């Protein structure tokens, strides 16, 4: 991919400091509000490496993420009907091709913007500002159950085999010059550094994981992601054979970004992936 390596970003990420306070995550609804994090959190400055240069062959079952060149036919990613009619079928094909899965079901689209006025105009959410993974050992299967709530027998059958949850993240605006998505190489995080937290959504109570900081963690980002790329990352896997199950991630300020960097506009699409 991109051979010219740039110096790593040094940026602050917010980690769980300790377990001294009860933990609750209240997601923003979008439109200008902010996600709330109850608990004791602390910023750490970390080095965030250019994955284009350093990890040209990462994959979902090891690092937990992979960047793929992908030109979508969608013109307006703010159109729900275009996502439904065009983007979801594209992603389903792509994820099947990349993972070898038999079946893929899309269950969520989340748009985010780093500009509060764009959040207000579009109903988008704020970028993540805490290191987290979207699901846990328990909440991955619960998400599947909820998706198939009309047919519990299908849910029970599908849970007999391996399944995963994969997020597909892309820029839907200008190339991302600030507030990039940053990811931890999943092989460098220790299980004990991940802590389950209630996710108190308006319509559903879920559970995600937040992370403690440890110097052995290796952090990456893909500089200047554009609309013709999609970043797949795994937030749950039912397999217990050593394959990557969780990929902690967040977003950060890039201290080298130009003052007039355009707002980061992104779409993340969550998919149930059946093998
Ligand atoms: C995600 C996520 C944060 C962001 O895609 O799961 O947490 O700032 N995204 O885009
Ligand atoms: Fe997330």
Provide the descriptors you would attach to this structure in a database record:
Jelly Rolls; binds fe (iii) ion; 5-stranded mixed sheet; 275 residues; alpha+beta; 5 helices; binds N-oxalylglycine
How is this structure best summarized?
The protein has 5 helices and 15 strands. By secondary structure, the chain is α+β, with helices and mostly antiparallel strands. It has one domain (9-274): Jelly Rolls (Sandwich), CATH 2.60.120.
- Name the beta content range: 25-35%
Give the cofactors and ligands. N-oxalylglycine, fe (iii) ion
Q: Identify the CATH class.
A: Mainly Beta
The major pleated sheet works out as: 5 strands, mixed
CATH-scheme architecture: Sandwich
How many strand units? 15
Protein structure class: alpha+beta
Q: H/E element string?
A: EEEEHEHEHEHHEEEEEEEE
**Alpha carbon gyration radius:** 18 Å
Shape: globular
The helical percent reads: 10-25%
Task: Tally the structural domains.
Answer: 1
Strand arrangement, major sheet: 1-4-12-9-14
| pLDDT averaged residue by residue | 96
Distance between termini? 28 Å
Notes on the structure:
With 275 residues, this protein is α+β, with helices and mostly antiparallel strands. It has one domain: Jelly Rolls (Sandwich), CATH 2.60.120. It contains 5 helices and 15 strands. The strands form 3 sheets. The chain has a 5-stranded mixed sheet with strand order 1-4-12-9-14. Strand 10 and strand 11 form a beta hairpin. The longest helix is centred in the N-terminal third of the chain and has 20 residues. The model has no long low-confidence stretch (mean pLDDT 96). N-oxalylglycine binds next to strand 8, strand 14 and strand 15.
